[in-house]
């Protein structure tokens, strides 16, 4: 049975957040149960992109600060880092407010722009990963995921946060290698088994719903979750938003691979029932193999969800084109004065363009026949 601490915390008040996380760690047996004093501890927040904290895209600096304070008070050696989806780690750290906290406590940002290939023969889907040097230089990880909706995997939480341990463009390359979201989810559970994070502290005070993981809307959930089991934390996130766990393949593969479990969870802390919010906007349908129709593209375009640019919102910045991992691109922009346009025949539905659009101009929509025939529950 896995144990998850559920801590009600209504706002990013420094003392409240600090006391909530302290209480949660104590309920789980204290830091000593998970990390040793002679180990170099790496904090891995969500630094997906350069958004200010109130956008709810990244781990809030107040959560980051509370964890740093607790670790330093207990005499641990701490560093941090992440590989953003767009922008350098230094720039993203500045905009997200993490850099100011790190400077205050003299916490170094480790190298997440270079790394090494690490083989993982036990992997069910992936036998090697390009792991960031900062991860390899550390003895133990504490992950600080953000609670968010996600178009490809339905939610992004504890398991998906560790994709940032892979440096630079190697992350996007996984979308080409595993365009099918089911295989992609299996790869994520392999990665978590490789990096073996000791503890996960999820920021769910203000989560992101809707067009996540970067273009959605902030949603107050008022909760912090802590566990050493990422599958149990993500399952708890599903429970809090009343999402069928069968719609989230990382849970099933996480259990099958021995990463964790989502059926037998012991909760401690505050009552979970009072924190459930069924109005959370998330895709409430099973993850389907959207590459199924690759051989019959007209059918694919009639049935499968696809990214669409809202030209009323688009600022023609071209970041979506840059983010597309497909060789030769599935999204084009003739000149900087033109709106980008899709070639859906080439599009593998990875939604990197939607994830990276800084102006919330890309939505993922299901065609009419897809609603009728393919995405029915
Ligand atoms: S990233 Fe967004 S705003 Fe920029 S060109 Fe693409 S759709 Fe338009
Ligand atoms: S166009 Fe968008 S969804 Fe399609 S492959 Fe490129 S990044 Fe992925």
What would you say this structure looks like, in words?
With 377 residues, this protein is α/β, with parallel strands linked by helices. The chain has two domains: 274 residues, 3-Layer(aba) Sandwich (Rossmann fold), CATH 3.40.50; 77 residues, 2-Layer Sandwich (Alpha-Beta Plaits). It is built from 14 helices and 15 strands. Strands 1, 2, 3, 6, 7, 8, 9, 10 and 11 form a nine-stranded mixed β-sheet that branches. A two-stranded antiparallel sheet has the order 4-5. One iron/sulfur cluster binds next to helix 13.
What is the gist of this entry?
The protein has 377 residues and is α/β, with parallel strands linked by helices. The protein has helices at residues 14-27, 61-73, 89-96, 98-104, 133-136, 158-161, 170-177, 181-195, 230-240, 249-256, 297-303, 319-323, 352-356, 368-373; strands at residues 2-8, 40-45, 77-80, 115-119, 128-132, 140-144, 146-150, 154-156, 199-209, 217-227, 265-269, 306-309, 331-332, 341-342, 362-365. The protein is built from 14 helices and 15 strands.
Give the topology:
Layout: E1 2-8, H1 14-27, E2 40-45, H2 61-73, E3 77-80, H3 89-96, H4 98-104, E4 115-119, E5 128-132, H5 133-136, E6 140-144, E7 146-150, E8 154-156, H6 158-161, H7 170-177, H8 181-195, E9 199-209, E10 217-227, H9 230-240, H10 249-256, E11 265-269, H11 297-303, E12 306-309, H12 319-323, E13 331-332, E14 341-342, H13 352-356, E15 362-365, H14 368-373
Parallel strand pairs: 1-11, 2-3, 2-6, 6-9, 7-9
Antiparallel strand pairs: 1-10, 4-5, 7-8, 9-10, 12-15, 13-14
Helix pairs in contact: 1-2, 8-10, 9-10
Bound molecules: iron/sulfur cluster (2 copies).
């Amino acid at each position: 049975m896995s144990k998850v601490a559920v801590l009600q915390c209504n706002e990013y008040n420094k003392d409240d957040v600090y006391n909530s996380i302290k209480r949660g760690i104590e309920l789980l047996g204290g830091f000593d149960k998970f990390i040793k004093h002679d180990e170099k501890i790496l904090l891995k927040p969500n630094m997906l992109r350069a958004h200010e904290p109130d956008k709810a895209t990244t781990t809030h600096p107040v959560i980051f600060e509370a964890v740093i304070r607790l670790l330093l008070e207990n005499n641990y050696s701490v560093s941090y880092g992440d590989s953003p989806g767009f922008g350098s780690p230094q720039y993203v750290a500045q905009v997200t407010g993490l850099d100011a906290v790190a400077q205050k406590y003299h916490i170094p940002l480790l190298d997440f722009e270079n790394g090494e290939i690490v083989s993982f023969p036990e992997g069910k889907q992936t036998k090697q990963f390009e792991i960031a040097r900062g991860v390899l230089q550390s003895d133990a990880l504490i992950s600080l995921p953000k609670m968010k909706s996600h178009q490809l995997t339905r939610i992004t939480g504890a398991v998906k946060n560790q994709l940032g341990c892979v440096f630079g463009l190697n992350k996007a390359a996984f979308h080409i290698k595993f365009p099918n979201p089911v295989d992609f989810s299996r790869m994520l559970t392999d990665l978590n088994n490789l990096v073996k994070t000791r503890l996960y502290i999820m920021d769910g005070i203000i989560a992101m719903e809707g067009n996540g993981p970067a273009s959605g809307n902030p949603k107050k959930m008022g909760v912090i979750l802590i566990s050493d089991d990422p599958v149990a934390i993500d399952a708890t996130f599903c429970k809090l938003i009343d999402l069928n766990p069968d719609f989230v393949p990382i849970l099933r593969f996480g259990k099958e691979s021995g990463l964790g479990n989502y059926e037998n969870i012991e909760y401690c802390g505050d009552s979970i029932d009072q924190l459930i919010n069924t109005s959370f906007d998330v895709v409430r349908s099973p993850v389907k193999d959207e590459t199924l129709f690759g051989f019959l593209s007209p059918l694919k375009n009639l049935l499968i969800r696809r990214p669409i640019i809202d030209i009323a919102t688009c600022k023609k910045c071209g970041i979506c084109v840059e983010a597309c991992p497909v060789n030769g691109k599935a999204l084009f922009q003739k000149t900087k004065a033109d709106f980008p346009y899709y070639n859906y025949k080439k599009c593998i539905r990875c939604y990197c363009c939607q994830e990276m659009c800084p102006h919330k101009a890309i939505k993922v929509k299901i065609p009419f026949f897809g609603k009728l025939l393919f995405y029915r529950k």
